[in-house]
């Protein structure tokens, strides 16, 4: 109590008076305010014991008023603190659930995949049926397949001509037939221009612009 | 003079949603057969069938496209050379009918301007599962000024008629040539009447 009295002497002319701590909202109280309140209450008690008996009822009434105010502040702080604790607990539980969900979704170490956009595809490298070829490769294979199919059809047609005897031995050896025979030749060693033309004509559908 | 196996080559194209029966329609026409097992066409395929119209032997090279979106870029590159395009939908599949406008847009974007178009409502044998009325098909065909048939590859309804009609429509637009003249490439890009086999 002595200390407080010394303090009082030193602080009298400084800052707002210690009484202002009682006027503050409980949520704006600082530790300094609490010390001020403590000092004021201590001073009241000191006065009760040191001053004449006649003054006691007045002092007690004043002290009672201060104590009620302090209890009100404490009540407000406790309520506020309980609310905050509840909110934080709920938030903690939500975050915990979220983390568990994310852990279940993917094995650890694929944080990169989680950041993929909506138009991206995740390929499982262990899946034997995973996509491996590009559209261009598919395009090329299909083109080759269809070219071979066209060649086969031409060849079959020509074979039919030979079988039915429409092409005579004489014509076969003659000039005009050489063109076709290149298409039929199984060796296919020399791709004559004529062969290309026939195939390409059938495929001008596809190659149209390039020819 | 060597005999020709055909007089004209027409290139046709089948398009439409996956599963409407494009391949079956073509298989019925080319091989007069039907297979119930569904195998999705991979990208693009073709079949050849020679028909005779107005005394002319016409070789039809019919390109069959995959309806699946993932083959879109491959299939659209085949639109350009087509002289006739058959757009097929499935009368038991409302979505395939709704998508007609999308396919027509594809034709506008990728095919020749003078391409002959035709609309087919396939699977017309499945009356109990029908969701697209015939009048609906007729109406949309009328709006776009194109021919329309309801077909069934399974029951062999209107298949040959559709192909022959399309070929006739193309033939009508094809300039008449002198008997001895070489085939005229109307548009260099399309390769309209090429591939004349001089064999025989």
UniProtKB/TrEMBL annotation, chain A:
Region Disordered, annotated ranges: 1-26, 171-192
InterPro entries, alphabetized: DZIP_RILPL (IPR051241), RH1 (IPR034743), RH2 (IPR034744), RILP_dimer (IPR021563)
Extent of Basic and acidic residues compositional bias: 1-16, 171-181
Positions with biased composition (Polar residues): 182-191
Coiled-coil residue windows: 71-105
Single Gene Ontology BP annotation: cilium assembly
Domain of life: Eukaryota
Key words, A-Z: Cell projection, Cilium, Coiled coil, Cytoplasm, Cytoskeleton, Protein transport, Transport
Location of this chain's protein in the cell: Cell projection, Cilium; Cytoplasm, Cytoskeleton, Microtubule organizing center, Centrosome; Cytoplasm, Cytosol
A Pfam family recorded for this sequence: RH1
Xref: PROSITE patterns: RH1, RH2
MF annotations from Gene Ontology: dynein light intermediate chain binding; identical protein binding; protein dimerization activity; small GTPase binding
Alphabetical list of PANTHER family matching this protein: RILP-LIKE PROTEIN 2, ZINC FINGER PROTEIN DZIP1
Protein's UniProt name: RILP-like protein 2
Organism the protein comes from: Chrysemys picta bellii
Automatic annotation (TrEMBL), chain B:
GO cellular component terms attached to this protein's record: cilium; endoplasmic reticulum membrane; endoplasmic reticulum tubular network; exocytic vesicle; Golgi apparatus; insulin-responsive compartment; perinuclear region of cytoplasm; phagocytic vesicle membrane
SUPFAM superfamilies assigned: P-loop containing nucleoside triphosphate hydrolases
Membrane topology, from the record: Lipid-anchor
Molecular function as annotated in GO: G protein activity; GDP binding; GTP binding; myosin V binding
Record's catalysed reaction(s): GTP + H2O = GDP + phosphate + H(+)
E.C. number: 3.6.5.2
Cofactor: Mg(2+)
Domain of life where this protein originates: Eukaryota
Entries under Pfam families matching the protein: Ras
Primary localization class, coarse: other
Enzyme class of the recorded protein, top EC level: hydrolase
Keywords: Cytoplasmic vesicle, GTP-binding, Lipoprotein, Membrane, Nucleotide-binding, Prenylation, Protein transport, Transport
Cellular localization per UniProt: Cell projection, Cilium; Cytoplasmic vesicle membrane; Cytoplasmic vesicle, Phagosome membrane; Recycling endosome membrane
Gene Ontology biological process terms in this record: antigen processing and presentation; cellular response to insulin stimulus; endoplasmic reticulum tubular network organization; endosomal transport; establishment of protein localization to endoplasmic reticulum membrane; protein localization to plasma membrane; protein transport; regulated exocytosis
Family label: Belongs to the small GTPase superfamily. Rab family.
Protein name per its UniProtKB record: small monomeric GTPase
Gene: RAB10
């Amino acid at each position: 109590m002595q200390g407080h009295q010394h303090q009082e002497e030193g602080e009298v002319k400084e800052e707002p008076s210690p009484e202002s701590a009682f006027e503050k909202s409980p949520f704006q109280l600082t530790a300094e305010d609490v010390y001020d309140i403590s000092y004021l209450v201590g001073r009241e008690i000191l006065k009760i014991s040191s001053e004449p008996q006649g003054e006691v009822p007045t002092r007690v009434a004043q002290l009672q008023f201060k104590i009620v105010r302090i209890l009100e502040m404490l009540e407000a702080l406790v309520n506020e603190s309980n609310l905050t604790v509840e909110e934080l607990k709920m938030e903690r539980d939500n975050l915990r659930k979220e983390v568990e969900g994310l852990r279940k979704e993917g094995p650890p170490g694929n944080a990169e995949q989680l950041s993929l956009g909506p138009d991206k595809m995740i390929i499982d490298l262990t899946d034997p049926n995973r996509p491996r070829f590009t559209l261009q490769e598919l395009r090329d294979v299909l083109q080759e397949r269809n070219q071979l199919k066209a060649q086969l059809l031409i060849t079959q047609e020509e074979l039919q001509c030979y079988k039915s005897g429409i092409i005579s031995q004489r014509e076969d050896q003659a000039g005009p037939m050489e063109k076709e025979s290149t298409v039929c030749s199984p060796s296919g060693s020399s791709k004559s221009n004529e062969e290309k033309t026939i195939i390409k004509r059938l495929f001008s559908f596809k190659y149209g612009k390039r020819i | 003079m060597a005999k020709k196996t055909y007089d004209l080559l027409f290139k046709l194209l089948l398009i439409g949603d996956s599963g409407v029966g494009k391949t079956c329609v073509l298989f019925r026409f080319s091989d007069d057969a039907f297979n119930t097992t569904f195998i999705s066409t991979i990208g693009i395929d073709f079949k050849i069938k020679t028909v005779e119209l107005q005394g002319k032997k016409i070789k039809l090279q019919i390109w069959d496209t995959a309806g699946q979106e993932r083959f879109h870029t491959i299939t659209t590159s085949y639109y350009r050379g087509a002289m006739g395009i058959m757009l097929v939908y499935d009368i038991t599949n409302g979505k395939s009918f709704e998508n007609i406008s999308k396919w027509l847009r594809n034709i506008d974007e990728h095919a020749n301007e003078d391409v002959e178009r035709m609309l087919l409502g396939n699977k017309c044998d499945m009356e109990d599962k029908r969701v697209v009325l015939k009048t609906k098909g007729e109406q949309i065909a009328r709006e776009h000024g194109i021919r329309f048939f309801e077909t069934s590859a399974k029951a062999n309804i209107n298949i040959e008629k559709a192909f022959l009609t399309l070929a006739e429509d193309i033939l009508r637009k094809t300039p008449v040539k002198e008997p001895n003249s070489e085939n005229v490439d109307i548009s260099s890009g399309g390769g309209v009447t090429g591939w004349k086999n001089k064999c025989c």
